[in-house]
Write a structure and sequence with these properties.
Strand order of the largest sheet: 3-2-1-4-5-7-6
Distance between the termini: 30 Å
Helix content: 40-55%
Number of strands: 7
Oligomer: single chain
Shape: globular
Bound molecules: S-adenosylmethionine
Length: 213
């Protein structure tokens, strides 16, 4: 469940850091400002932190450098192998948004960058319900991910990718589970979160959801 992209990430792991650094023109705009975006997310996190979809630990590294405790969850063994080399201080476990080891540490923030879109709509709802249960009363979720403002925006981004000859990107935009903003807002609100959205680049948004009373 929610694991259909793991083979892709095992293959991508060794070149992933080149992609986020902008070396692949096709994904340059998706990750534009990557380092600054992750820096901002790290600052917003409150320890103890649970991070999903750690990847090569670029966000994890920034959070650890702020002396915060991070429990990382990552389903790809290749990503975990690189993450443990780059961030040996972090505890990184095999798991995904919906299934992960039972860890007893109280969690005050749940963070993730560029990973939540791997869940279908139903899986996102299930994950958000579980965030509410997992977080302390003053807890929050802070994510960065691609979101479509609405259907027209989705079509604009797909056409723009096609015009530039970025056919893999165009296919991702159609086939992965990037949510519409209002759909994601409703998922958080119905589960008792107060949520805000801020656009960070052409694709990526900062999503902050505070657990309500
Ligand atoms: C685009 S990478 C982002 C990595 C890192 N967070 C970053 O910002 O560079 C997406 C990551 O999410 C992981 N992933 C895929 N499906 C997942 C799931 N269902 N639950 C948690 N993580 C998942 C992938 O293995 C991959 O490491």
């Amino acid at each position: 469940m929610g694991m259909e992209f793991v083979d892709l990430f095992n293959q991508w792991a060794s070149s992933y850091d080149d992609t986020v650094a902008g070396k692949d023109p096709e994904y340059r705009e998706v990750f534009e400002g990557y380092d600054e975006m992750l820096g901002r997310l790290a600052k917003l996190s409150v320890s103890p932190v649970m991070e999903f979809g750690v990847g090569t630990a670029n966000l994890t590294r920034k959070v650890i450098d702020q002396n915060k405790v991070v429990l990382g969850i990552e389903p790809s063994s290749e990503m975990r192998r690189i993450a443990k080399v780059k961030c040996p201080e972090a505890a990184i476990y095999d798991g995904n948004f919906l299934e992960y080891p039972k860890l007893l540490t109280p969690i005050r923030s749940i963070i993730s960058s560029f990973a939540f879109h791997h869940l279908t709509s139903n899986e996102k709802v299930e994950a958000i319900q579980s965030f509410r249960d997992r977080l302390e009363d003053d807890g929050k979720v802070v994510f960065i991910d691609t979101i479509f403002k609405d259907k027209e925006h989705k079509q604009q981004l797909i056409k723009s990718a096609e015009r530039q000859g970025f056919l893999n990107l165009a296919q991702d935009l159609q086939e992965e589970y990037y949510p519409f903003l209002e759909e994601l807002r409703e998922m958080f609100v119905l589960n008792g979160f107060e949520v805000t959205f801020e656009q960070l680049n052409k694709y990526a948004w900062l999503i902050q959801a505070k657990k309500g009373e």
